[in-house]
Amino acid sequence: MKNYRIVVEYDGSRYDGWQKQGNTDQTIQGKIEQVLERMSGKSIEVHGSGRTDAGVHALNQVANFHIDSDRKDQEIKEYLNHYLPEDIRVKTLEEVPERFHSRLNAEEKTYLYRIEMGEKRQVFDRKYIYGLHKKLDVKAMERAAAYLCGEHDFKSFCSNRKMKKSTVRNLKKIEFEKEDSRLFVRFTGDGFLYNMVRILMGTLIEVGLKERSPEEMAGILNALDRKTAGYTVPPEGLFLENVRYKQ
Amino acid sequence: MKNYRIVVEYDGSRYDGWQKQGNTDQTIQGKIEQVLERMSGKSIEVHGSGRTDAGVHALNQVANFHIDSDRKDQEIKEYLNHYLPEDIRVKTLEEVPERFHSRLNAEEKTYLYRIEMGEKRQVFDRKYIYGLHKKLDVKAMERAAAYLCGEHDFKSFCSNRKMKKSTVRNLKKIEFEKEDSRLFVRFTGDGFLYNMVRILMGTLIEVGLKERSPEEMAGILNALDRKTAGYTVPPEGLFLENVRYKQ
């Protein structure tokens, strides 16, 4: 058995997210597994670096799978891209050591969230940006972000109420980049809870709209209660941008 | 009556082109006229700089219309963008002299055609680029383009067999730009016949695939016969990029 690592780009618009969900499957993982089964005649499990929610996109999702195949790497990649739908693309494929696991070995992830502050989204971008259409005070958002960065219990920023595992994560940085009327926000951390990026973003937007002060962030973190944080922003602005592994 | 000039961006994917077509209307012109009628209570005609075909996009289509309105320019623009569908956007709106006519005064147009030569289109780009997935000899295409540029009778590059008006046009330049596995081709001229850009592009692609030699271009121009030219490339790669007017 060989172990292959793939980097995948997808438009999440018409999918129920990354993770496979039974038989009537409209997930990214499911689509890739279907093509690998077609190629190999066997059922193959694809391990993603993590889930992405329904409607969330990926620029560089990382996944791996084990397969017996005489095909060359390039042939497998071409086979996948030939049979995958147009909104899923395998960017690279390479053989990796047996023990590599895309989720367990992931050290750091970066998510990008895109916001249109101007009056209308650019038409070619409309499925890939959140149409907020309001001006944001980015300086205030940066002050709020400083409270959120670091190792904290992010229970207030997690939608899953039944979460029994640790909700402590190390949020390494939040970076803001303005481009005309668009704001790009990058979240880098060792891992993210369910909906964590989208709730962080919604809370920061409420700061940017002056509905909350940056100083409130400390209290929200301490409350360990989802109700104290801001709203969950919609998925179309969110991209899994990068997953980093130990070299 | 005031005369307004607008610059419009649209994703042509789900439209039957720019030009209005009776009542069951799914055209860009029709959508804009509907919003202006809603705003003014009157039937308003919008004049585009030219038609774009079904599925063709625009980055900067120019149009004008006459209207009685007490609203400020910015208010009219915001009204339009509020009621227009997400895939049509008014980028700028300004009052212009009474006699300005977006079609009659247009001096030069530039169309952009985008081709993916690599194995798969980038997923976020898939509706905005032609998936050729074959390597092209751009040097040969440039040699062919040199034959096509200049003032010629482009009857061989026109789909409309019943064209009774002059088919002479001045094709000022064809520019090639490579970006990784993508090829961007810009056609600038004083005007273009029905399907002319898409037939020019298809013919140049046949040269790039070595199915034709660059030297054949002279014979195709001279033949004045659509059958001698290459195929019509699909609309999704085509963008009306710019329309130029006398200053």
UniProtKB/TrEMBL annotation, chains A, B:
Biological process per Gene Ontology, one example term: tRNA pseudouridine synthesis
Any one Gene Ontology molecular-function term assigned to this protein's record: tRNA pseudouridine(38-40) synthase activity
Top-level taxon in the UniProt lineage: Bacteria
Keyword Magnesium: no
Protein EC: 5.4.99.12
Catalysed reactions, as listed in the record: uridine(38/39/40) in tRNA = pseudouridine(38/39/40) in tRNA
Residues binding substrate: Y111
Record flagged with keyword Signal: no
Record key words, sorted: Isomerase, tRNA processing
Domain Pseudouridine synthase I TruA alpha/beta: 7-103, 144-245
Pfam family, one: PseudoU_synth_1
InterPro entries: PsdUridine_synth_cat_dom_sf, PsdUridine_synth_TruA, PsdUridine_synth_TruA_a/b_dom, PsdUridine_synth_TruA_C, TruA/RsuA/RluB/E/F_N
Active site (UniProt): D53
UniProt function note: Formation of pseudouridine at positions 38, 39 and 40 in the anticodon stem and loop of transfer RNAs.
Family assignment from sequence similarity: Belongs to the tRNA pseudouridine synthase TruA family.
Self-association and partners: Homodimer.
Annotated NCBIfam families: hisT_truA (TIGR00071)
HAMAP family named in the record: TruA
Annotated protein name in UniProt: tRNA pseudouridine synthase A
Organism encoding this protein: Lacrimispora amygdalina
